[in-house]
Amino acid sequence: MDELYALAEEHDGLLASKDARALGIQDSVLVRLAQRGRLERMSRGVYRIAHFPADRLAQYREAVLWAQASQGPERIALSHETALLLYGISDVNPARVNLTVPMLARLRREHPEWIVIHRADLTPQEIIQHEGMPVTSVERSVMDVLSATHWTDIARQAIADALREGRLNAAQASGLRKRVSRSAHGH
Hints:
By secondary structure, the chain is of the alpha+beta class. The chain folds into two domains: 2-49, no CATH class; 58-184, no CATH class. It has helices spanning 2-9, 17-22, 27-35, 58-68, 80-87, 138-149, 152-165, 170-184, and strands at residues 14-16, 39-43, 46-49, 77-78, 97-101, 115-119, 127-130, 133-136. Strands 1-3-2 form a three-stranded antiparallel beta sheet, with helices on both faces. A three-stranded mixed beta sheet has the order 4-5-6. The N and C termini lie far apart (57 Å). The relative contact order is 0.12.
């Protein structure tokens, strides 16, 4: 359990079975610990230490670990409205967690209903580590929300909030505003 605690501390009480295997802990041990109530099985390949206090980001960390479980794709990120929420820019409050995975990524298991999978080949510059999690950049997040929902008001609010919070500089904000305006006018 000590090794599992150390592993889970990095992810607020969550751990992936593949990470446990890398430490030499067999899947059967995780199953037994779950049966005894020491671990909670959250989704396939993702466990939570039973009495570890969950934080406000636990669901997002779980989504990332789920996608990376069982040799899943590496270049994934929380995206769309979820990214705007995590950055604290705009008034969005998505009911489900948005996750972008590579176009050709094979996710062999059924995904939890509370996760929305988007497919795009993200560049390394489009993935930012935010609070220890991969999140699409502000620019990418705004454009993803705009292309998926056509919410120009939300896009404009996110740009203004990001500029005020220092997440965008004036040139980036100006360029994004132009792209939003072109999109709003159907170009």
